[in-house]
Design brief:
The complex is a heterodimer of chains A (296) and B (249). Helix content of chain A is 34%, strand content 30%. Chain A has 11 helices and 13 strands. Chain B has 8 helices and no strands. The chains are: A alpha/beta (296), B mainly alpha (249).
Chain lengths: 296, 249
């Protein structure tokens, strides 16, 4: 295992606004990574920095050991699919698919053809006239069929219907197991992708809040609920990620409960339930001082 | 930014990318040009059918002042704008460096300009040989174009088109990098320069000299000089785009 992405104290400012604030992280080769966070958390900016589309204010980025900006030998191994991708005026999907093999040495035309029929993408319609979901499908097809050693998907399935999303969730791990590569996927549909992800990076306000193995993370917190007084007593001295109270009842998302603590909770008459990845992300990112600007 | 030239293969795929959709860059302008020619033929036929003697000679003289083919130059300016505004972010998503994109785009523009220049040159000879499509009309032998040997005609057509390409590309690069504020500043700067030059010419009473220079230089000389601002636009566009970031909207 070697790191394909190494980020060290990366900061990106736009005027007085700090979009990425001292981020350090490493992504190992071969794995499906989730980049999770709320709208405006900095997911797209981080991906644009990693792919050399944006210039860092300070800090360093290494992809395959080299800086990505204007570096052909790095960029040749990347594919960056973003929700807001612009296409040349008057392009139709078949133009994109004609050009794609020139840029992606591992392009698999047969796989692309199969995906086109799975997603029912009309090849000969102008991209401007496609629905939101069809444009997303085009991006997903390019991202999967490119088989780039390092693939970035930024909110790749906006507007895709449930069936099409399921196709993506099925195809990605299936193709990944045959052609191992590194995939970094940003999304806010966390529950849907949670089984897909091997590693999770949560960012909020331009900072990394969580950078952990997905399995470890799933067992890392527990929701404890019961009478407010009992919750207060039980949670004292423990790390609380999130807390809610309604009437005399409370629930708290508490990190790292061991077997003894669980037994104690049961003795106190409290209910224990597992925390899904989505709940964990919500719990972690709502505790920050920023207000909800948009509902995710 | 390093100054090493990008690999040929990497540049060539960008050139090809500009030619993937031939409909936009060849089909549509070709059709519109054909339509303009047909409309002009109809007008020349009307003139030929309704005038005779000295009137006819005067009319044919007037027909050399035609702007019928100017459309294509403006169209290519728009092609250049779109190439930078839309194809640039698209190509970067496909792992192209800014440098590769600039080189590839410049080559694509020059190839297109030479292609259109060759077609216009050929059409200008056809127009000449057929006596103005049999009606004494002028579209490709307008007064502004060269009536010299083939290479002079090719230079005028291709050179003028290259100017529109690189001027459009430079303006679009400013837009991609600094959005509309950048274009406002660029527009203001160009206006100031033009007003300054007009003032200079007026206060030094040199309009006569300038007029004589233009007449003396002729179409070939003017286009040859136009290569200077073209080169400036190309180099400026290259450096502006070199630090530009593709934005989503």
């Amino acid at each position: 295992m070697s790191a394909v992405i190494e980020v060290d104290h990366l900061t990106k400012r736009f005027g007085r606004f700090t979009a990425i604030d001292g981020v350090s992280l490493a992504v190992e080769e071969h794995g499906i990574y989730g980049l999770l966070g709320r709208n405006g958390a900095g997911k797209t900016t981080l991906m644009q920095l990693l792919t050399g589309q944006e210039f860092a204010t300070s800090g360093s980025i290494r992809l395959f050991g080299e800086p990505p900006v204007e570096n052909s030998s790095v960029l040749d191994r990347l594919c960056f699919i973003k929700e807001s991708q612009r296409y040349p005026d008057e392009y139709r999907p078949h133009h994109v698919l004609t050009a794609a093999p020139w840029f992606f040495p591992n392009w698999d035309a047969e796989f692309a053809a199969k995906l086109i029929s799975d997603f029912r993408l009309p090849l000969n319609r102008r991209i401007k006239k496609l629905s939101r979901g069809q444009v997303s499908a085009l991006g997903v097809i390019v991202g999967l069929a490119s088989r780039a050693p390092l693939t970035f998907f930024d909110e790749p399935y906006l507007g895709l219907d449930a069936v099409a999303r399921q196709i993506f969730y099925d195809r990605l791990p299936a193709d990944y197991s045959e052609h191992p590569r590194t995939v970094l996927l940003s999304t806010h549909l966390i529950d849907e992708v949670s089984n897909l992800l091997e590693h999770v990076i949560v960012i909020d306000d331009g900072r990394v809040l969580i950078d952990a193995d997905a399995d470890t993370l799933r067992g890392s917190a527990t929701t404890v609920s019961g009478r407010t007084g009992a919750i207060d007593a039980f949670s004292a001295g423990r790390r609380i990620l999130h807390r809610e109270s309604v009437g005399g009842l409370s629930s708290a998302v508490i990190e790292g409960l061991d077997a003894d603590a669980r037994a104690q909770a049961v003795r106190d008459g409290l209910d224990l339930s597992p925390v899904s990845l989505q709940q964990l992300v919500v719990a972690t990112t709502t505790s920050s001082p920023t207000e909800w600007k948009e509902s995710a | 930014m390093t100054t090493t030239a990008p690999a040929t293969q990497h540049v060539w795929r960008v050139v090809k990318l500009h030619f993937v959709n031939r409909w936009t860059i060849i089909g549509v302008p070709g059709l519109v040009l054909t339509f303009i020619l047909l409309v002009n033929v109809a007008i020349w036929a009307i003139i030929a059918a309704t005038s005779s003697g000295q009137d006819r000679v005067d009319a044919e003289q007037g027909l050399t002042y035609t702007g019928a083919s100017f459309y294509i130059f403006v169209y290519m300016l728009i092609v250049a704008l779109q190439a930078i505004n839309n194809t640039f972010p698209f190509a970067l998503g496909f792992g192209v460096t800014r440098r590769e994109f600039s080189f590839g785009t410049a080559i694509a523009f020059v190839l297109l300009a030479i292609g259109y220049g060759a077609a216009f040159t050929l059409l200008s000879y056809i127009e000449q040989w057929t006596g103005g499509w049999g009606l004494g009309g002028h579209m490709f032998t307008a007064i502004y174009f060269s009536d010299g040997p083939w290479f002079a005609r090719l230079l005028v057509f291709s050179g003028a088109m290259v100017f529109f390409f690189f001027f459009g590309a430079c303006a679009a690069s400013v837009f991609v990098r600094w959005r509309s504020n950048g274009l406002l500043v660029l527009g203001a700067a160009i206006a100031v320069v033009i007003v300054g030059l007009v003032a200079l010419a007026t206060f030094t009473s040199s309009w006569g000299v300038i007029g004589r220079w233009f007449l003396g230089a002729g179409p070939t000389g003017i286009v040859a000089w136009l290569l200077v601002p073209t080169a400036i636009a190309a180099v400026a566009g290259y450096f502006v785009l070199g630090r530009a970031t593709p934005r989503s909207a």
